[in-house]
Amino acid sequence: MAKHRPPPDTAAAAPDDDAALFRSAIGPVRELPPVPAPPPRPRPRPAARMAERDDAEAKGDFLRLLDEAPIEPGDTLRHRRDDVPARVLKRLAQGEYAAQDELDLHHATAASAEAMLRRFLHDARDAGIHCVRVIHGKGLNSEGVPVLKNLCDRLLRQRADVLAFHSAPASQGGTGAVLVLVAPRRG
Questions:
Q1: Which domains does the chain show, CATH number per domain?
Q2: To the nearest whole percent, how much of the chain has pLDDT over 90?
Q3: Res. 13: pLDDT tops 60
Q4: Dist. CA 119–CA 101, nearest whole Å
Q5: Per-position b or e across 100-118, b if 16+ CB within 10 A of its CB
Q6: Among candidates 94, 107, 121, which has minimal Cα distance to 180?
Q7: Three-state secondary structure call for residue 180
Q8: Where is the Smr domain (predicted)?
Q9: How many degrees, rounded to 5, is the angle at CA 17 between CA 11 and CA 23?
Q10: Do 123 and 92 meet the contact criterion of CB atoms below 8 Å apart?
């Protein structure tokens, strides 16, 4: 025969304090040893705010230039930074600076030409080269405007490492090439 237990007296078994009930059900506990604090989160890397601002400004200038009239096949490319004397641009136009390296962009797409030109200018500056020639073609085979010529003009204007540029003299490619003065590397 099974013994039946009487139902518990709910009034006597339910204490007023739930925490006391929990402690009595668990019994004695031992405290865990202290755990060392986790390492602090690494500090964020400092941001190059000036470089970001310069990039944003250059991008804005680039977008403004896109709104201007495009360069035509026979147009001459010319530009100089404000701190570069006008006589430097004149000497560049006359071909008095010897091109130390050359990049030919013929048959390149606009995207690959842009990447090639950026890499070329970066490498030229790293190598200490001060004058380079970029052959972009006259754009006579382009539909509408000369794509590579306009790309070169806009890209060269926005780069801080380009001091001045001018279409090459006729003997060095004329309006199908541009001579570029690259700023020397600092430090």
A1: 71-182 (3.30.1370.110)
A2: 41
A3: no
A4: 13
A5: eeebebeebeeeebbeebe
A6: 121
A7: strand
A8: 103-183
A9: 110
A10: no
Q: List all residues 6 or more positions away from 75 whose beta carbon is below 8 Å from its beta carbon.
A: 149, 175
Which residue has tokens 């794509």?
147
- Is residue 93 within 8 A of residue 84, CB to CB? The reply is no
| Lookup: tokens for 17 | 């304090």
pLDDT, the chain, mean: 84
Q: Considering only CA atoms, which of 177, 184, 186 is closest in space to residue 92? A: 177
User: 72: closest CA among 185, 167, 6, 186?
Assistant: 167
Task: Quote the CA–CA distance of 84 and 88 in Å, as a whole number.
Answer: 7
pLDDT tens digit sequence for 110-157: 889 999 999 999 999 999 999 999 999 887 777 778 889 988 998 999
Extract the tokens encoding 66: 């896109």
Interatomic CA distance for residues 54 and 121, integer angstroms: 18
What is the full DSSP assignment across 22-82?
HHHHH----PPPPPPPPPPPPPPPPP-HHHHHHHHHHHHHHHHHHHSPPPPTTPPPEEE-T
